[in-house]
Amino acid sequence: MNKKTVGIVGVGNVGSTLAFTLATKNICSTLLLKDVRENFVQAMALDISQATNASKSKTVTKACLKDEEFKNCDVIVITAGIARRPGMSRDDLLLTNAKIMTSVITQIIPNNPNAVIIVVSNPLDAMVYIALKASNWSRNKIIGMAGILDSARMAHFIFEKLGYGQGQIEASVMGGHGDDMVPLADFSTVAGVRLSEVLSKEDIDDIVYKTKNGGAQIVKLLETGSAYYAPAYSTTLMIEAILEDKKEIYPCAVMLDGEYSYEDIVSGVPVMLGANGVEKIIELNLKNEQKEQFSKSIASVKELIDILKEKL
Ligand SMILES: O=C(O)C[C@H](O)C(=O)O
C-alpha cells in the first residue's frame, strides 16, 4: 500500500465526496480533513472512516481541528469557499473566496512544504492566481481543477447528442473555468473519429453552448449549491496522476509564463501531471478563431485579477 497523505480543506459537497472516493478506493494511506465547521468535519471523518471499513480499504481518515495536525501532505485539495446560487456567476464569489483562499494558504503551507496543491474553489483561475501569490510557491505546485470537469461535461453532451459512444469520447476544453471557456470541438473525438464527421455544425454549436453552461445548469436545478460528483471525480484523477507519478495529460489551470504568448495569468491548458505536479505544459496549435476565444477567456480572468490587485 502507498504511504501517501492527501489533505482536503473544505469538506462541503465537493470535499466530502472527494474524501469518500479517496478513502473507499484506497487511493492514499492517510486522509486529513480540515474545515472551519469543527463538528461537521469530525462527522465527515467518522462517516467516511466507517464507509472505509465497510469497503475494506485501509485509508485512515482524520479530522484536523488544529493547524499543526494538518501536516506532511503529498497533495492538498482546497475546496474552501462559498458556492454560487442560481443567477450568480462564479465571478460573484471573487472577493469572499479570495480572502478565504489567502487565509487557507497561509495556514497550511508551513506544515506542508512538499505538497502539490489542487485548487477547486471559484472563480477557479483567479483562486489559483491568488494561491500562487500568497504562497510564493512555484507554478508547478499549485494547479486548478476545472478542465477535466468541463471536458467531462462536453463528453456528456456529445453522448447525449449522439446516443452512442459513451466511454469512447475524448472531449477537450481549454481556457478559464468561466462563461468564456473554450470547448475545442476540433480536438474532440469519438473513438478517434472527429466530431464533424458524426455531428452537424448546429449540433456541435449546441454542445459548445451546453458545455459552457454546464455548471450553471446544475446550480439552477439544485437551488442551494453547485455540482459535486463530477468535480470530485475530476479531482480524483489529478490526485492519482500526481501520487502515482503517472505523467498523464489533463487540461488544468496553471500560471502561464510565455506559453500561448501569455504571462502572469492563470488559464486552463493541457498539462502533464506527475509527482512534481505540472511537469510540462502542452501548447496546442490553435486556429485563429480558437486563439481569439482563448484571448477573450484570458481577458475575463485578467479582469478578476485586476479587481483583486485593487481591492485586496
Ligand atoms: O458551477 C459552479 O459554480 C461550480 C463549479 O465551478 C462547476 O462548474 O460545477
What key attributes describe this structure?
14 strands; Lactate/malate_DH_N; oxidoreductase; globular; L-lactate/malate_DH; Rossmann fold; 2 domains; 3-stranded antiparallel sheet; tricarboxylic acid cycle; NAD; 312 residues; alpha/beta; 10 helices
The shape, in one word, is: globular
Largest sheet: 6 strands, parallel
The CATH class of the largest domain: Alpha Beta
Total domains, how many? 2
Number of strands: 14
**Mean pLDDT score:** 97
Report on the structure:
The strands form four sheets. This protein has a six-stranded parallel β-sheet with strand order 3-2-1-4-5-6. Helices cover 44% and strands 20% of the residues. The chain is α/β, with parallel strands linked by helices. The longest helix has 24 residues, at 288-311. It has two domains: 5-144, NAD(P)-binding Rossmann-like Domain (Rossmann fold), CATH 3.40.50.720; 148-311, Alpha-Beta Complex (L-2-Hydroxyisocaproate Dehydrogenase, Chain A, domain 2), CATH 3.90.110.10. The model has no long low-confidence stretch (mean pLDDT 97). Helix 1 (13-24) packs parallel to helix 2 (38-55) and helix 3 (94-108) packs parallel to helix 4 (124-135). The structure holds (2S)-2-hydroxybutanedioic acid. (2S)-2-hydroxybutanedioic acid is lined by residues 83-84, 90, 122, 149, 177, 215, 219, 226-227, 231.
